[in-house]
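User: I'm curious whether this sequence folds into something compact or stays loose and floppy. Could you predict its structure so I can see for myself?
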Amino acid sequence: MQLIWLRSDLRINDNTALSAAMAKGPTVALWVASPGQWLAHDDAPCKVDFWLRNLRDLRKALDTLNVPLLIRHTDTWQQVPQVLAEVCKAQRIQAVHWNDEYGVNETLRDTTTRAQLEHAGIAVHSHLDQLLFQPGTLLTRAGHYFQVFGQFRKACLEHLHRSLPSQVPPPKPQAPLGIAHDPIPQAIDGFDKPPQPLSNHWHAGEDEAQARLTRFVDEAIEDYQTQRDLPARPGTSQLSPYLAAGVISPRQCLHAALASNQGEFDSGNEGARTWVNELLWREFYKHILVGYPQVSRHQPFREHTRNLPWRNAPSDLKAWEEGRTGFPIIDAAMRQLLETGWMHNRLRMIVAMFLSKNLLIDWRQGERHFMRHLIDGDLAANNGGWQWSASTGTDSVPYFRIFNPVTQSQRFDPQGRFIRHWLPELSKLDDKSIHLPKKSADLFAGNDYVSPIVDLDSSRQRALAAFKALSN
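Assistant: Here's the prediction. I'll summarize afterward.
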């Protein structure tokens, strides 16, 4: 009997571990809830709810394969090895399969689990699934993990030109095992169910993920290069929650993008090539987790930035978190996050740089806030993006490049459509005023929008001075 331990791979198609297990023999599936660990990782309630909803959809799919789904509960991952050992004993499991995850806690959990199972005489098979390339197989000439995305991307493309990672064949139904499904909890203690409008925006299931991918490739990928930075337009795939939960695989995304571009990486449609680059950014940050584990421990990648004089400014932090900074593009983005569990990627960069540079508040405060609200919260991507914006990470933006939220707003939301949607109190302003409203009786009759909490010019100089001092 085989066991697949499901984690962030909640699908049956192109699931490496599931296919490998079912090819070996009769298979049982297991999913373990660990709410104490999730709280320690700042996983968002909407993300946990998304897992549960996808599990319910996955159970139906497993039914078609006659694969029973068992559910177990632990507080943290420390208890996981014992739980798996008990399941294996009860079900007479001979081998356990899982798809690799990355990060120091995930690695420790899996290493400990492997040791306990193998000590009990149970074989363990881990599989590459979240990534296109096994960490450690793409290295610099000196044998180190890449620190610069451009060099990493070049190495990826060289390998992809030689051989594309194949999707695994869909598993065939097995004979019924006579083992009943365990009930999937409707909610997990410590994680409130999100409002229904949020859940409705992110329907669960492989069919939904595949429909989004198909729609994006058919309708938007060709213009992705020009539309992806415009938050008022549907120019992105919005597949990140499905990738984070493993409801769709990066291989499926890569093959769909290449199919839309006649298999080309270096020519053809620029939108498709740009989207492939975004898949490789995702890959890059997960390789960073393995090669430079300090980033999993809330440490800056660039050691010298550890001594930045971050401000302790709880009122400014709270205003940023609640969308009350007085800068419309910032506030609209933060309200989008709170209401939908998601934020447009261009806006993630703008709000992150505003917090870490203009407010000079520790980027880790923002990283944690994002994780506590993002339905697509992913340690590697979230940490990588925050450290890039704060100029503390790999391939980071130079510290002297500081986005001006007003000019960013004017450039990427020129008519203020996105701002008007999320800040209806500003809906009557003209296209020029809406990017930085002035506090005046005439303009703000009946309007209580806040004044800017910081001066952009002086705060920029403060950040430049703080970073420059580190290099002296």
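Summary: The CA atoms of residues 333 and 348 lie 8 Å apart. The beta strands are 2-6, 27-33, 69-73, 95-99, 123-127.
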